[in-house]
Amino acid sequence: MSLFVPKFDESVIVRDAGAEVVGRAPTTVKLLADSSATGGALSTVRVTLTDGADGARPHLHNNSAEMFFVLDGAAELLSGDDVVTAGRGDLVVVPPGRPHAFAAVPGSDADLLVVITPGVERFAYFRHLQRIHLGEVTPESLLEVQELYDNHFLHSEPWDGRRR
């Protein structure tokens, strides 16, 4: 096992009022710290979902683990072939290469802290999603940047079947 030692000299401090927010209800993403700010240690965002909203469709990261900490509400999370419900204070960590997705539980909101480690420059990915939402680029354009963001989409029967 190799040890990754991040390279940065100063503490990273992000004030709530100064954090960039992309999207709007039902899905908003607050950009907290990207990989470049943390010397590659991590990338982190806060995702707020209202009333059963989807957060991310099934995908995997080849080179990073992803942590989901439920700050408030309840979320459904895909991990491999399992769909788990996580409530306030629950933590789910998905290893590299494992399919995952997340959404707010129907009838509930969810407020999640999401951390990817080691970090990947992800803020541009969330801005890309915003451009798709605004109709500036097509949803298919995400396929062109999968490698860049280590975000590889896939199909998941357990995820698709969870609300039938």
Please tally the β strands and state the result. Answer: 10
**Compute the gyration radius: what is it?**
15 Å
Tell me the helix content.
Answer: 10-25%
Tally of DSSP helical segments: 3
Strand content: 35-45%
Tell me the span between the first and last alpha carbons.
Answer: 42 Å
Low-confidence stretches: none
Q: Could you say which structural class the secondary elements and strand pairing correspond to?
A: mainly beta
| Mean pLDDT over all positions | 94
Order of helices and strands: EEEEEEEEEHHEH
Largest sheet: 10 strands, antiparallel
Oligomer: single chain
Overall 3D shape: globular
3D structure, described in words:
The structure is a single chain. This protein has 164 residues and is mostly beta strands. It is 12% helix and 40% strand. The chain contains three helices and ten strands; from the N terminus they run βββββββββααβα. Strands 1, 2, 3, 4, 5, 6, 7, 8, 9 and 10 form a ten-stranded antiparallel β-sheet that branches. β1 and β2 (27-33) form a beta hairpin. It starts with 19 loop residues before the first strand and ends with a helix. The model has no long low-confidence stretch (mean pLDDT 94).
List keywords for this structure.
single chain; 164 residues; mainly beta; ten-stranded antiparallel beta sheet
